[in-house]
Amino acid sequence: MKRREFLNTSSKIFCACATGAGLSLLQSCSKNVVSSPIEDGQSEELEIDLNSDGFTPLLLNGGSVVTDGNVISSQGLILLRFSNTVKAFRNNCTHSGYDLMPFSNGVSVCTSGHGGRFNTNGQAISSPATGSLREYVTQLDQTLLIIYK
Ligand code: FES
To answer: Is 101 close to ligand 1, i.e. is its CB under 6 Å away?
Structure first.
């Protein structure tokens, strides 16, 4: 059995929708998520309904959102719809830890202005960022996304 804690916070996340024409949309949204500490106390999971406010960009391939801190990552997550999966990365640039922008046209840009950028595998593609973003295991069942720590 899992003990579930319902979070019903109105916190800011950033969303982006990418289209073939390269348009992106950046907006402020609110979120409803459920966090579930797993009984062994060593892992946690975060459940997100992609139909909930602020997460609907993830219903479309290429859609991306950035969340506030949560049980998976205190720095927040950058989420990317990628075919039938949703990838989840820690929102923490590998250079100096600044936040990242949602993916647009397959690239996430660091907000620092230093020039760091990451591809859809979380790998740095321009300096001064190096290495890869931490990626978390996810599971997508219809519109229910579960992220595991
Ligand atoms: S903190 Fe991201 S490139 Fe410097």
So the answer is: no
Please tell me the distance from the alpha carbon of residue 87 to that of residue 100, in angstroms, as a whole number.
15
- Please, what are the domains in the chain? 5-148 (2.102.10.10)
Q: Which among 123, 36, 31 is positioned nearest to 72, based on CA atoms?
A: 36
CA dist., res. 21 & res. 34, Å (int):
34
DSSP at 102: P
Distance of CA 54 to the CA centre of its chain: 12
At 83 the three-state DSSP class reads coil
What does each of the 149 residues of the chain score in pLDDT, given as a tens digit? 343 333 333 333 454 433 333 333 333 343 456 666 555 556 899 999 999 999 999 999 999 999 999 999 999 999 999 999 999 999 999 999 999 999 999 999 999 999 999 999 999 999 999 999 999 999 999 999 999 99
* CA of 67 relative to ligand 1 center, distance in Å: 18
State whether the beta carbon of 116 lies less than 6 angstroms from ligand 1: yes
